Amino acid sequence: MTQCSVFRQIQAISPQPIAPTYTLCVSISPTNPSSAKTSDSGLPEPITLKTLKRMKRQGEPFACLACYDATTARWLERAGVHLLLAGDSAAQVILGHDRTIDMPIDFAIEITAAIKRGAPHTLIMADMPFMSYHTSLETAMTNAARFMTQGCADVIKLETDETFAPLVDRMTRAGVPICAHIGCKPQSSSVTGGPIAAGRTATQLDQLVRDAIVLEQSGAVLILIEAVPEEATQAVMAAVSVPVIGIGAGSACDGQILVVNDLLGLTDEPPRFAQAVDSFGNRLKEAGQQWVTRVSNRSIGGQAYSMRPGESEKIQSKSNTATPIDR
Predict the structure, then answer these.
(1) Is the pLDDT of residue 4 over 50?
(2) CA nearest to 82, candidates 148, 129, 35, 150
(3) What is the DSSP letter of 241?
(4) Residue 44 has what pLDDT?
(5) Residue 210 pLDDT > 50
(6) Mapping DSSP to helix (H, G, I), strand (E, B) and coil, where does residue 90 land?
(7) How far is CA 153 from CA 23, 28, 64, 150, 247, in A?
(8) Which of 9, 166, 276, 312 could serve as a FRET partner for 247 with CA atoms 20 to 30 Å apart?
(9) Residue 119 is part of which domain span?
(10) Is residue 19 situated within a structural domain?
């Protein structure tokens, strides 16, 4: 289902005149009119891997964002964003950890499904968390299956290099579409002492190209390349035929991705490659300050509920006839 709403109807049962009727509506994922291209039936045309491949052939860049909840996903689908990533960066921007490796797998699966419910016509990619695909082939396959079934993911992203080729091959043959993440790999930052750029020497560039070629040959349907010079990006794109998504990898990529919090100006110290389009953090603070003021002034706004006709008089009558309690 693309809509999950809870309605409670309070009906008038008192004599004439008929009392007002209130409908309480809590909508988790309401109807999602999208600015995306529509099909002949009038419904939004879903974005698929075929869509991205077609856009690559036509030289049309596609837009991607990492987000973490159904409401944000709903608005980003309406904006026409082609791909949404349920990123393991949620460990930092949602759960408050310092590292992506603290992302719980159950939480990762839940937010993937939430994003799909919020943006049912958008291609949804899931990040498999740290150590969810490293300990054994069997564990990796089981966890990938959970992301595809419970999480409703369309694509699974793995932080990889050429040594992951057997795993990518096995997953692909089992029907799991894989995006191979190369270059800077945040899940490996403990080894390097923190995130570092990749592909900055001729040797590193050659390794990136070799990784991309081997992973595509193993079945990867997308390549994501992070924090590399433009020369490395161009070399990888020249070596593979699948769409290449960049983050901090220059402007030549087939698709570009950022964390939505960085895009909106919600991050105190964003990465050097992330340029915000809004200062939403300050606007959110101002909204909070206004609420504090309204509460302080007892002017919370909105519409109040009222008693049914005649009920206030009953309450007043009871108050007037009440017998004081003997002391």
Answers:
(1) no
(2) 35
(3) -
(4) 73
(5) yes
(6) helix
(7) 35, 20, 15, 8, 21
(8) 166
(9) 45-283
(10) no
**Band of pLDDT at residue 37, cut at 50, 70 and 90:** low
Tell me how many domains the chain contains.
1
What does the angle CA 189 – CA 190 – CA 195 come to, to the nearest 5 degrees? Answer: 25
Helix residue ranges per DSSP H, the chain: 49-57, 70-79, 90-93, 105-118, 137-149, 165-173, 189-192, 202-217, 230-239, 260-264, 280-296, 311-321
List residues with catalytic annotation.
226
Lowest mean pLDDT among 29-33, 105-109, 127-131, 200-204: 29-33
> Has residue 173 been placed in a domain?
yes
- Judge whether 213 lies within some domain: yes
Residue 39, pLDDT > 70, answer: no
> Is residue 17 pLDDT above 80, yes or no?
no
CATH number assigned to the domain comprising residue 264: 3.20.20.60
98 assigned to some structural domain: yes
pLDDT for 40: 60
